[in-house]
Amino acid sequence: MPVKVENLTHIYMKDSVFEHVAIDNISFEIQDGEFIGLIGHTGSGKSTLIQHLNGLLKPSSGKVFIDGEELGSKEIQMKKVRQKVGLVFQYPEYQLFEETVYKDVAYGPRNLGLSEDEVDARVRKAIGLVGLDFDSISNVSPFELSGGQKRRVAIAGVLAMEPKVLILDEPAAGLDPKGRDEILRGFKTLHEQQKITVVLVSHSMEDIANLVDKVLVMNKGKIAYFDTPRNVFKEAETLEKIGLGVPQVTYLVRELRKKGYPIADCINIDEAKNELLRLFKR
Amino acid sequence: MIKDITIGQYIPGDTTVHNLDPRIKIIITFVFITLLFFVGNYFSYLYIVAFMGLAIGLSKISLKFIVKGLKPLIVIILLTVVLNAFMTQGEVIYRLWGLSITREGLYQAGFMGLRLIFLITGASLLTLTTSPIALTDGIEKLLSPLKRIGVPAHELAMMMTIALRFIPTLLEETDKIMKAQMARGADFETGNLINRAKAMVPLLVPLFISAFRRADELALAMEARCYRGGEKRTRMKQLKLEFRDYSAMMIVAAFCFLVIWSR
Fold first, then answer.
1. What is the pLDDT of residues B33-72, one digit of tens each?
2. Which residues of A touch B183 (CB under 8 A)?
3. Separation of first and last alpha carbons in chain A
4. Is residue A5 a contact partner of residue A66, using CB atoms and an 8 Å limit?
5. How far apart are CA B236 and CA B229, in angstroms?
6. Strands, DSSP E only, in A41-124?
7. CA-based nearest residue to B206, from B245, B178, B171
8. Distance between CA atoms of residues A143 and B256, nearest Å
9. What is the dihedral of CA A99, A104, A105, A108, to 10 degrees?
């Protein structure tokens, strides 16, 4: 399921006084089974970009290919694309609407026209994947749940579509530290077990450093970097200039090096621990 | 998707028309609309055209935008024109499938069509050049004499301000929820009427919930800042009539005289 974007440009409110270029002629490719991080300052075009990947927005110019098929061409069915590419929006709990958790999670699979048995199996699986207990929660109204549980139910609603590419727009925003760790770890496990492609939009450089294989850095509608976290986080000054940063531990290590300690660049706590132990054992 | 609606939109600017006192602008709009019904012949429309031209020219709003505002109402205008053309008694000049167009009918149709067009442009010029806040301020001031007989002028104006303020927010919200449900395979565009109505449920339920949530939050935020209605509230910007307001009134009065005189 490679995702390929070619010379994509998106202009909002074209030909009016409010015209705004959100995405400016970008091209990139995501391979099967990659875990991609998408970072960028507010207004850099992240949300616009991800909406192109499942055809919710149409390019002003340029092309998007999913599995070699061009989105927007006549032969392609949008429903099929949206089943292949699952999109979890920011604050997805605001899209819950059914009487029970079960029905809400089943909404997506039912739209796909699956048999009731298949729907049931998918709902059970999806609720399990987000770490909720099926028996105790399936008949509860989603509006009675806590914020974190609502978020999980909403995410389960997308997972039940069994997408091959999963796009997550800040899935952990507004959750407590425990909740965010659980949810993000859940995605990592899902990625490893089911071999699905994941695109994670996040403002937390720590999460990006810990989870992803490659980072796509957006700035003013263009791609600033598309590389491994290790290479991208070497560019601390440039990242700061475009309103981003590097993980806290990377800052720490850089400070130490400025003070004269011979320490290599680190992007997460484990690496930093090993480096520090190596340094002070001598 | 739903962003093409221009009625009620405000285009910021710093022109004489923009800076007129909102009370005067509201009164002028009403006088203008009333005046349209006093227009007796095509010749009088020249004065109306001159007045509209003056107002639009001074407001520096592009004609393209005004024409765009007419588009959603084109059906109503056309219907009026067609009905008038066919339904008026008089000298027959053309027959079509047993229906006949009369000379008087054509005269009447053009007349009514123009009246509608000017009605809409006049009203939209008011909202195009007046910010919602100024508009409600003006309405509140104009209604304030009615407070004595128990009309809650301030509350009405506040409700209007809030309603106007939330139109774009709710449109954005609708767009967002629609997309989220489409990502789950929802289909809002095909199917028969019943299926389409059913498809709206996943959109309407979250929309209502979020509207109530926003209302709750807003009420809380207002109370946290000690809002308690119109009693003894003062304003940062006091409305005051200035030279341009008096001149505008004089000009309108002159046009009124011309139109009525030329009947």
1. 999 988 888 888 888 899 999 999 998 888 888 887 788 7
2. 54, 56, 82, 86-87, 89, 158
3. 49
4. no
5. 16
6. 61-66, 69-70, 85-88
7. B178
8. 59
9. 150
